[in-house]
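Hey,

Quick one before I head out. I ran the complex with beta-D-glucopyranose overnight. Inputs first:
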Amino acid sequence: MSNSPRTHAFLAAGLTVIGLGAIPRNAPAADSLHPNLWPQGSHSVALADTDPFVDGILARMTLEEKVGQMIQADIASITPADLRSYKLGSVLAGGNAAPGNDVRCPPQAWARLTGDYRRAALTAPVLGHVPIPILFGIDAVHGNAKLIGATIFPHNAGLGAAHDPDLIYRIGRATAEEVSAAGIDWTFAPTVAVARDVRWGRSYESYSESPALVAQYAPQMVAGLQGRIGTADFMSPGHTLSSIKHFVGDGGTFDGRDQGDTVISEAELRDVHAAGYPPAIQAGAMIVMASYNSWNGVKLHGNRYLLTDILKGRLGFDGFVVGDWNAHEQVPGCTKSDCAAAILAGIDMLMAPDSWKELYRNTLAEARSGEIPPARIDDAVRRILRVKALAGLFGRAATNASDDGEALRQLGSAAHRAIAREAVRKSLVLLKNEHGILPLDPHSRILVAGDAADDIGMQSGGWTIDWQGAHNRNADFPGATSIFAGIERAARAAGGSATLSRDGTFGKKPDAAIVVFGEHPYAEFEGDRETLEFALGDDHELQLLRHLKSQGIPTISVFLSGRPLWVNPELNASDAFVAAWLPGSEGEGIADLLLRAADGRAPFDFTGRLSFSWPATAMPVTFDAAGVVSGALFPRGSGLDYRSPRSIPPLSEDPAIPAARQAPDGSLVYGGRVIAPWSMFVADGGEQVHVTTERQRSPHDAVGVAHGPGGIAAEWGGSRRGTLLIIGREADLRALARRGGAVTLNYRIDRAPEQRVTLDMRCIESSCGAGASLDLTAAFKSAPLHRWRTIDVPLACLAAGHADLERVEAPFELATAGRFALTIAAVRLHSADSGAAAPCP
Ligand code: BGC
Ligand code: BGC
C-alpha cells in the first residue's frame, strides 16, 4: 500500500497550530547524498557453495512460501502448530517472552520449545522440495541471560573499559555455546552503537563513545559467536548467528532519545555511527538489524539509501536485514501489519512479533499485485536462505538433537564463569583512591552496605531474564555470586570478616565501609534520562556515604550504572570510588580487586580505563567534528591503579543544568517536550505507536500529534476512538496519592470536544481501579478556545483506592472518539500544595 493518502489526509485535517517542523519523509533528498563517501566492501563470505543450492530451492518456492520467509513472529503470539500453515522464516523470543509464558522456567523448557518450533517447521507439508528450517532468535546481549542459570557477562559499556579484544572474542564463544545449547540459532548481538549522549537508555549496550574501539570489538564478538571466517570453525556446531545492530545512528539521536532522530552529516554517520559495520561484515556478520531511529528525519526502516544503496551496495553486505520490533510501523504510511515501504527500502525480514498473520496477508497481497516487485522478494528470500544454509541449518535440520538437554551443561559452566569474572575485573575503573585506602586489608572488619550490595538483579541490569530486568531476585540466579557474597568469601578466606547491612547501620564500628549502589535496571527508552544527575530526587545513598564518613569510617563506593553519571557529591563523600558498570553474574570479580590477599598483596590491579568520558556536570559531554570532547571530568582513558596513586581535589557540587532544562520534579511534559524517562504514544484499535518524530499519527488515524514551540498539539479526527498516552518506567504512586497528589495539565483547547473525553491511568497487572475513567468533557467544553488553562486532577479521582497505584505504567491517558483538539504545554505529577485533596474536576 502506498503511504501518501494517509499522510495527506492527516495534513489536510490541518493541525493549523504553530510551526509543524519537517514533514516526515520516506526518502532523504537525493541530491544531498554521497555514496562514494562510504568504504567499498568486500563481500567477505564465500557464496559459491551456498548460492546454487539456495537458488535451487528458490526456483521451487511458491510466493506464499517466499513471503513467509520474510516474516518473524514472537513466540508469545505464534505456536509451533501455526508453522504448519504459515511457513515463516523465523521466530524470536522477545524480551518478555518465554516457554509457557514463564520467564523463570527451567532451561530444559527452552530446549524443548526450540525443538518444537524446529520440528514443526520441518514437518510442515511442502510442495515437493526440501523443508526450510526456521531460525530461532533471542537477545543474548550479555550472555544468554534470559535463561535461568546462564553466565551473565558485564554489559557492553563495562566491556569497553577492558580494552581487550581477545576477551571479547572469548565472551562471544562462551555466549554462543550457551545459546546453541538451548537449540537457539541466532542472537541479536552485538550492538555496535557508538553512544554519544549517554542520557540514552541503551548506552550500556554500547562499548564506547569511541568509534575506533567499537570497530575493534565488533569483529571479535562476531568471530566469537560464529567462529572465525575462513576456518573450519566458522558456523560449526556450538556457534550461533550474530546480528549487528542497530543500523545505523542509534547512538547519535538528539538529546539521547531512544528511537529518536540522528541529525548529523553523512560523513559523521559513516565515521562515528557506522564504524562497527565494515569490520563486522568483514568478520562474517550475515545479519544486520535495522534501527528504530531516523537519520535527518527519515526513519531507517524506510531508508532505501542507507539499507540498500549503502549497506548492501557499497558495504558489500550479502546477508539479510532484519527489522526491529514492530519498528516498521513508524515509517510514514505504515502500520505494524502493513508496510511494503520497509521491504522496498531493503528490509528483508520484518520483525512482526504480534501482527505477523495480518502482515503476512498484506505483504502477500502486495507481492501478488506487484507493488513489491518479484525481484525484491527473491532478493530478500535468497539472502535469508543463504544465511540458513551458511549456518548449516539445512544439513543439521533432520537430525537436530539440541533438545535432548545434554548440551545444557554448558549453561553457567565453570569455564564460562571464569571468563565472566575476568571480564568483571578488567571492566572496573578506579576513579578515586585517597591515601591508598584500597586495596583493603582483608583481616579488617568490613561493612558492606547499599541497595546493590547483595542484589544480582541490580548487578545484571536490563535484558536479564526479562526485558527490563527490574524484578529479579538472587534466587533467580543459581550459580551466580552477589558483590557482597564475593567480598564476604574473600574476607573470610583471609581471616577477616564482612557484614552485610543494606542501610549501613552497624553494631561494632567497621574499619571500612563498601557502599554498593547505582542505577536500578532498565532497558531501551525506559532508561532515557533528562539529565545525568544520579541522585536526582533520591539521595539516600549520598546521605549514607556522608553519615559513614562523618563517623571517621573510610568509605569505598562501588557504583553500578549503565553509563557515566554525574556523581560529584558522591565522589566527594567517598575515599575511594569504583565505576563497576553492570558486571553481571560474577560479583566475585569485584572482591578480586578491592581486597589484598591473605599474604598482604593485592592479587590483581585495576587495568580498566574509561571507554566513555565521565561528565563534569549533569549535562552530557559534547563532541566536536573531530571527535574532541568537551565537558569531561575524567576523560576517556582515565582510570587509576595501585601502582600510581593520585589524589583528586574536592569537586563542584553544582550540576550546572541550564535553566531551560530544569523541568519541575514530576514533570511528564514540560515546555512542550516529553521529559525522559517518559515517552508519548498514540493509540487506536488496540494498537499504539511510540511518538519519536515531530509528528505521529495513531495506527488507524484516530489521533495525531505534532510538536511545536507552544506545546504538543493533539488532534482527534473523529473517525474512531483514539488515545494519547504517556508511558514511562513503572512508578509507585501510592505515597503521592496519600499526600493528596494530583496530575496537573497545562493546556489550550484548539477545538471543543464533540464527544466524551476521558482521562485514565494504566497500571501493570491491574486497571488502577477498574473503570475509574474521569470524564473531562464538561471541563474542556467550558474552557475558552485558544486560551491557556490549568486543570488539577487528584490521583484519588483516577484510582478506586491508593493500593491500586502501586505499579503505574501510564499515568496519563487522554481519549475520545469525537473530534477534538488541544495543545499540551505541561503535564506534571505532584503533591497537593495545600495538603488538602482537591475535588475531582
Ligand atoms: C530492540 C532490539 C531487540 C528486539 C528484540 C527491540 O525492541 O530494539 O534491540 O533485539 O527488540 O527483542
Ligand atoms: C519485548 C522486547 C522488545 C520491546 C520493544 C518488549 O515487550 O519483550 O523484546 O524489545 O518490547 O518495545
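The two ends are 44 Å apart (CA to CA).

Talk tomorrow,
K.
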